[in-house]
């Protein structure tokens, strides 16, 4: 399914209210819920782990899309799968054995995603195409919400789109997506748009219609 999907990142939500925030964005048209897991080692920020994912899972009616910015990854795959992740994405830069990691994700019953940092070429996934359901192109350096979109990644998405051909692989874009940058990426071939600050800005669980306006504007 290559229709455009908006995946709000709860990194920009109210951390004291994840359940209500998720219900609000889904009611306002979010297609997937993007969950950013950071370890303070692979990226310079810390967020949350499998226990939090498990706690929010009952509130998600769409797709729980878990983006692991952690190294090592393999010791935690089973826990995130058991927490109910539908998609588990690991970074190609997070260790020497991404192929094994992707096998393990599928073996645990989740869809397998591979993420590329802005400095990593598209060719890094060339020999992984039969192993993945999703390729995530980072359009900021991972670690924080609200950063500026890196334009050079448009070309990478075009290249990946050609490489993927007719294979059933999603191209997800993560970082700096707003109403200006989103069309560049959908034109280039992306179908899943992660957006944190652009979805949550100006809204709250008391004013969820602002989330709806923000989602429709993307
Ligand atoms: C960045 C995270 C993103 C982040 C995007 O490391 O992977 O998912 O939340 O936030 P915005 O949309 O604000 O750039
Ligand atoms: Zn992310």
TrEMBL record:
BP terms from Gene Ontology? pentose catabolic process; pentose-phosphate shunt
Identify one Pfam family in the record: Ribul_P_3_epim
Q: According to its UniProt record, in which pathway does this protein act?
A: Carbohydrate degradation
Q: Which SUPFAM superfamilies match?
A: Ribulose-phoshate binding barrel
Instruction: State the Gene3D superfamilies in the record.
Output: Aldolase class I (3.20.20.70)
Its biological purpose is as follows: Catalyzes the reversible epimerization of D-ribulose 5-phosphate to D-xylulose 5-phosphate.
Query: Could you tell me which HAMAP family the record lists for this protein?
Result: RPE
What the record says about family reads:
Belongs to the ribulose-phosphate 3-epimerase family.
Q: What is this protein called?
A: Ribulose-phosphate 3-epimerase
Q: Which gene encodes it?
A: cbbE
